[in-house]
Each structure stands twice: as structure tokens, then as C-alpha cells.
Amino acid sequence: MKKHGVAAALAAFIWLAAPIVSNAAAEPTPPAEQEKKEGAETQEKPKPEAKVWTSRHQIRIGGKAVDYEATTGTLLMKDEKDEPIALFGFTAYVRQGQDARTRPIVFAYNGGPGSASAWLHMGILGPRRAVLEDLASNTRGPFKLVDNEYSFLDRADLVLIDPVGTGFSRPVGKAEGKQFWGVDNDIKSVSNFIVRYLGEYRRWASPKFVLGESYGGIRTGGVTYDLLTRHNVALNGIILVSPYLDFVSGTAGLNTDAGDSNFMSTYAATAWYHKALNPQPPELLPFLREVEQWIETVYHPILYKGARATPEERQAALEGLARYTGVSAAYWDAANLRMDENHFLQELMRAQGKTIGRIDSRFAGGMPSRIAETTAFDPYASAVAPAIVATYNAYVRDELNVRSELKYELSAGLYKDWDQSHVQPDTNGQKVPYANVLPDISYAMTMNPKMKVLVQTGYFDLACPYGTVKHAIDHLNVTPELRRNVQLEFYEAGHMMYVHPGSMGKFSEHIKTFIDQNAQ
Fold first, then answer.
1. SS3 for 317?
2. Where is the composition biased (Basic and acidic residues) (predicted)?
């Protein structure tokens, strides 16, 4: 879902058998008993088994019947020594009566790191979707599932992936979570799963696409390059939904000029939406063009100057910050012209006793503590997550017939354990401390010049603001010809623009058209 997890951490249960110590003299073990004991100790543990559940269904998309097969379960992944290391969870939807050699296939996942794919699954991509009321608390059942008229199953098959530690995916054997929980280990494990699936289900000849949301942008950038260089798998296209692509320029509050500048336009959009500006501009898009111009000509330059800025320049910047964000010049002055999103979300409507959503800043919720400097919860996540959890768990068990005692981990809280470092293609094997996959995407586009890129971003997203997305795309190191392979689409919605009623149709059509144009 987003780069900072909000739900409960993944629980690990360790059973310890403690020996009983006695002062009495130990009696010798009879030979027969000793042999039995040694045999039990050397006996191999049962190997983990992958399980899948298959069912057949029909929906109508665009007035036409679509018959499909759903396969939900796990694939057993092994290491180079052929030892089992993970049960990798997935759900695949395959339209019946199609030629697999020409039928496109899309591999999709959410982000986190530590987020399962249920958000995309039940929000927009799957053939069934949860009914979510916009700008409302979807916390009270009964929750409703409907056929998803926005599904692209009429155009392509779909495989929803849950990386290890999320969903039903688990490390097995002697493997530990740390073997998967890091930028590069995650990239490698997801690439390995995709390759394994292509072989297991005979989809090598199919046109191939990968879709990633949020942190899934970093994953997709790395997977695209890794598939090409380590497995010789060339993708037809990648779809980046609200993508997080570069840690430094994609994060505010680190005292970096790019990061702090890139959040500013979404601060302005949020203030506009909540009518916190004086004067209040009548239309969003002309206002944002004005703000973007101000960021480039006034705000970013003064951050770059730092202490060299004159008092007059600083005062002009403070006046602009107050005018465009709805937060007072005094607060911005105390913050030294820089503010991360958590402070902004708490400050914007503090006087009204409200805090703002980070995932979708159109949402507002109560503020338990009016003196807290940063927000303690996300009104969007708390309003939507219960419906997603309930509908997904009911759906896979009641309609897809999954029989598993495992808990489906929607948000596994892996961020704190995540290795953020990354080996970029241009660093001669040296790790950079924080991931930036723009070089990975740039190299993949250069090596595979027919690959196309669709980028989708929302104006009210403060997890991965549209300014960070534009900045990242502008810094791809590709030729002007290759830059034409990138399509950037904007929505008047938040991080999960696909659950916004006014954006669902556009979101779906952009993906369908992208697949149609690039599946040849």
C-alpha cells in the first residue's frame, strides 16, 4: 500500500523446549532407546508443500461475458542448492478459450514494503471488487462485493503476487525473513517467482507486463532490470501506480532540497481541497500550475541557497508558503522553510480539530491530541482497510474455495526490518545506502527500447506525491526518443486513485489502452 506500514506487524511464533535439570545422577540410556532417539534426531522434517485451489467463473465486462479460471495458492520456491526457501502466494485469473502465446499477462503487486496485493485485488484489478463509499468510513459491515466492470480481464490475464511475509507467503525450511526483506533480496525473489510462474503455467511466449503500486515502483524498477539481465526476460511494458522510485527525492523532512520541494504541490492541492486558502482559487489545475512555477522559481532556489538567502528572499518565500499551503508563515519560519508530510497533515486543520489523510489527503478525521506535532493515524487507511480485509478473506474462502489456516497478512509491518540499500546498475556492484531505481529503469529502457512505461499518479497523494513522481520521470537517463515511451497520467484522487469513483473508469481505460497498444 504505502512505504510506511500502518497495520500490525507480522507475528513470529517460536516454540522452545527447555530441558529439565536434576541433581540426581543421570542413568544410562538403554541402547535400543538411544538408537531410537538418534534416529528421530536425524529424521528429516516434512518438506513444505505448495497448494493451489482452482475454480471457474464468469463475469460481464463491457456487456460481454468473460469466462475465466481462478487459481489461488502458493508456489514452492527453492534456492541454488535446490533447498526450499519460501511458499510464494498468488492468485491468477486466466480467461478461457484464449491462445496463451498471444494472450497478454500482467503480474501485479502492492508496495509497503510489507503490503499484500489485496488492495489492488479488491480495489480495481480483480474480477470482483469491494464496494467502498468515497470519503466515508467503510468500517461497519455487512460489506459488499460486486462484479468488477473495470477489470482488464477482457484484455489480459492477471497474476496478483504477495511477496514473502505478506498474504499467505512465508519463508520455509531453513530460510529466514531477512533473506527476502530488503530492496535487492525482494527484487530477486519476485523476479524468481515470475520466472517460475512462466514455466509452471507455460506462459513464456505471452506478452508480459508488470504493475506495481507505491513501493511497488522501486520493486518494479529493480525487477524490470533483473528479469532482463539475470533471466533474459524482456517485458512489453511496466505500469507504475503512485510509484515510489527514489528514496531521497521522494521523501520530505530529510533536509534535501529536491525532497522538500517535491511535496509542496500536494500540500497546495490538499489546502485547496479543504478550502484552507485565502483567497481560495476557483479551480485546482490552474492553481497547481501557478504553484509549480513558484516552486521552480522561488521555493527550490531559496532552499538551495540556505543561509545565503537574504532576509527579503526569505520573507518572500514565507509569504508564498502561507499563501499556497494554508499553514501560517510563523509555523513555516519555525520549521526553517521545510516540513515533512506528517507535520503538515496535523497542522493544516488543527484549529478545526482535524487531521488529514496521508494516503488520500481528501480524507479528514478527528484529532485525539490537538497539541501533537505529527499525525498518529491515517483517516484514509482506517476508513478503508476494514472493508478490504473483510471482503478479501470472505471472497477467497467462499468464492475461490481456499482452505488454509494461515492468516492473510494484509500489512506485515516489515518496513523497520527492511534493508534499504540497493546495488544500482551503474555503481560497479557497490551498494548505495538508499534505493533509487531510476538507473535500473533507464538501463532497462535502453536495453529493451520497445518496452513502454505507464505512470499513474494522484494530486491528493501525500505518500508518493505527484511532484516526486514527475521529478523522478524527468530524471530518467534516456534519449529523447526513449522518453516518448513514457506515458504520465494524473487523477484528482489520492494514492489509491482506483477506488475514487471519478477516477476508476479513467484508471481502467488507461491500463486497457496501454495493454492493447503494447501487446503486439
1. helix
2. 33-50
Tell me the pTM.
Answer: 0.90
Asked whether the beta carbons of 414 and 6 are under 8 A apart, the reply is: no
Mapped onto helix, strand or coil, the DSSP state of residue 484 is coil
Q: Which of 214, 213, 206, 269 is nearest to 233 (CA)?
A: 206
CA distance from start to end of the chain: 31
Domain with CATH 3.40.50.1820 in the chain: 52-248+384-518
- Which residues have CB under 8 Å from 279's CB, separation 6+? none
pLDDT in tens, 123-173: 999 999 999 888 787 788 889 999 999 999 999 999 999 999 999 999 999
Give the pLDDT score at 426: 84
Using a 10 angstrom Cβ sphere, with 0-12 exposed, 13-18 middle and 19 or more buried, the burial of residue 383 is: buried
Measure the CA dihedral 106/107/108/114, to 10°: 180
Q: Give the C-alpha separation, 207 to 236, whole Å.
A: 6
What is residue 446's three-state secondary structure?
Answer: helix
327 DSSP assignment: S
467-487 per-residue burial string, b: 16 or more CB within 10 A, e: under 16 = bbbbbbbeebebeeebeebbb
Phi and psi torsions of 77, nearest 5°:
-100, 140
Report d(CA 76, CA 410) in Å as an integer. 21
> Is 511 buried (19+), middle (13-18) or exposed (0-12) by CB count in 10 A?
buried
- CATH number belonging to the domain at 52-248+384-518, selected among 3.80.30.20, 3.40.50.300, 3.40.50.1820, 2.60.120.280: 3.40.50.1820
Cα separation, 204 vs 28, whole angstroms: 61
Distance CA 165, CA 410 (A): 10
